[in-house]
Amino acid sequence: MNLEEAKGKVKELTDLLNKYNYEYYVLNQSSVSDQEFDRLMNELTILEKEFPELASPNSPTKRVGGAVQTEFKKVPHRRLMLSLANAFNEDDLRDFDRKMREALHTDCVSYMGEMKIDGLGMSLLYEDGNLKYALTRGDGVTGEDVTANVRTIRSIPLTVGEKRSFEVRGEVYMPKNSLAALNKQREENGESLFANCRNAAAGSIRQLDPNVAASRKLDAFWYYLVNARELNIHIHSDSLDYLDTLGFKTNHERRKLRGIDELLAYVREYTEKRDSLPYDIDGLVFKVDDIDSYDSIGYTAKTPKWAIAYKFPPKEAYTKLLDIVLSIGRTGRVTPNAILEPVRVDGSLVQRATLNNEDFVREKDVRIGDIIGLHKAADVIPEVTGPLKERRDGNERPFVMPSTCPVCGGPLTKVGGMHFCLNQHCAARKVEGIVHFVSRDAMDIDGMGPSVTEEFFNEGFLSDIPSIYHLKGHAQEIKDIDGWSDRSVDNLLTAIENSKNQSLERLLNGLGIKEVGTKLSKSLAKRYKNLEAFYTLGEEDLLKVDDIGPVAAKHIHDYFHDETHLDELKRLKESGVNFDYLGADTVDVNSYFYGKTIVLTGTLLSHTREEMTEILEGIGAKCASSVSKKTDIVIYGPGAGSKLAKAQELGIETMDEKTALDHLSRLGSND
């Protein structure tokens, strides 16, 4: 067989195998026997080995696994992968419906009701009809490239008929029967069992060996076509139907709902049905069906306003409260924690739960030795609901809040219902401060989590934040600890060295100054450019910064006028930690956009909205999500709808993307 003949045969076999995969894994039916399917797969495998230039990354043969990977590459999402706001009861849903009716100026809104699959969020990008990559949600901005593992999920089409670029998002999950089979096998092998389908799915999709992922029999549902309007689709339910035609597996328990009464009836129906489904759901999702209205309804920093996730009432369990112990946070806050007889709550093993503060313990009348109720708040965080007083036998002991810190012995002070250890040199506070400094949103030192930090502190390798940058002097001692190898120590030291090059906003966040989080850290870094600028600032100077009030101003001022902190900062600088803001912003007071409030609408072609927002804010503009009388300029692209119309109605300046880019290219001019 020559190359041209082989090429035609490979295409024929690929089309047939894709067809049979779709029939079996999406439609739950098959027009071919297993033996015939295996014969065709074997024939294609042989051809690809004989003609390797014809072996596509999206070939059906790639579904069975592949080479072991060394790590997952991090890739930025083209568009932010936002979370959803939560509703926990009927009142929350009615409030959501009220807001939607007010935003859309109508008495009745059309929604799409969908299952909230308990799995792992995933985004797929297709270009020219081929799967290009699959990304996990990650932090919403950047995900991990798990394409090799996702290719092993047989219900996911590797090629589609749509040749235009598009992105689809959904949930990778493990069916209940797959979990049962997997746990049975793990039990026979003497391995620990997966607590629930979600943990199993997340653990499987993050295996570095695609062959392991392939063996786990994962599946996926797809629920959002990101750029539907670019494909001339303007109704969300139509976009799901279109995904069906492309061969994607969508969830057909979905339903178009008209108004709040149908929405609540859907909630009641699936609250009863949830346990009978062949997969786990932890709630329902409701989206406004009209995609064109999304921009006018708007977004918060983290969530779209046009959708909401309804969480099912948590399932409660009962167990014995063995003890109450205190934990001390980096700010000195002291929190009582319940130590529990291990119990499974909605699939997870729980041995510990927060009791918030002394008043919570007193109001609930929780005593050591009680049988207590326990549920997962928002189906995630273990929460004590209260004691079963009828089961007391007289041996229970009331909890008494100590007057001194259990770690350093210093006095505890009660402020606003919370107890605090005010000793800044308390070992517990120091450990928590180091944990925060190395965290992902701060200096992002991979491999140095809470348990490692505590171990190093107890061993004497760490004493405060600056001592992180002297850990290389303890390299051999660390290697002598069980669980540490030459490679893992080298990786940690490399991560520590790399963290010296982080931008100022991450350092500011990592210092743990009260009231200063990620957003305020970035604002301060952009404004003052260098950490040492804070040494001479008064509270009145800080009050001139947006989003800073008197409380935050005092905390920031006091931090940079404390001798202990100044000594730590001096040592950080001597270790080579960067003190400068490394952002690419070029603030020019003469630029066309400086000081103006700007709204972006439609599809931008040269940049994503997130990228354009960062550019504009970097040169001193302020970007808003909705058009109002305070808006100065609306920048629009193809598909712009109600925002552009409203701007024109209010007489607000509008410009297309090309005009905006022309202005950006002429920084320093206000022409």
Task: Provide structural commentary.
The chain is built from 23 helices and 24 strands. The radius of gyration is 28 Å and the shape is globular. A hairpin with a 2-residue loop joins β13 (333-345) and β14 (348-354). The chain is an alpha+beta fold. The chain starts with a helix and ends in a 7-residue tail after the last helix. The longest helix has 23 residues, at 3-25. Strands 12, 13, 14, 16, 17, 19 and 20 form a seven-stranded antiparallel beta sheet that branches. A five-stranded mixed beta sheet has the order 2-11-10-3-9, covered by helices on one side. Strands 5-4-7-8 form a four-stranded antiparallel beta sheet.
SSE map:
Elements: H1 3-25, H2 34-50, E1 74-76, E2 85-87, H3 90-104, E3 110-117, E4 120-127, E5 130-136, E6 142-144, H4 147-150, E7 166-173, H5 176-188, H6 197-205, H7 210-215, E8 219-225, H8 236-246, E9 255-258, H9 259-273, E10 281-288, H10 294-297, E11 307-311, E12 317-328, E13 333-345, E14 348-354, H11 358-364, E15 367-368, E16 371-377, E17 381-387, E18 397-398, E19 412-415, E20 418-421, H12 427-437, H13 450-459, H14 475-479, H15 486-499, H16 504-510, H17 518-528, H18 539-542, H19 550-559, H20 563-574, E21 597-601, H21 609-618, E22 622-624, E23 633-636, H22 642-650, E24 653-656, H23 657-664
Parallel strand pairs: 2-11, 21-22, 21-23, 23-24
Antiparallel strand pairs: 1-6, 3-9, 3-10, 4-5, 4-7, 7-8, 10-11, 12-13, 12-16, 13-14, 13-20, 15-18, 16-17, 19-20
Helix pairs in contact: 1-2, 12-13, 16-17
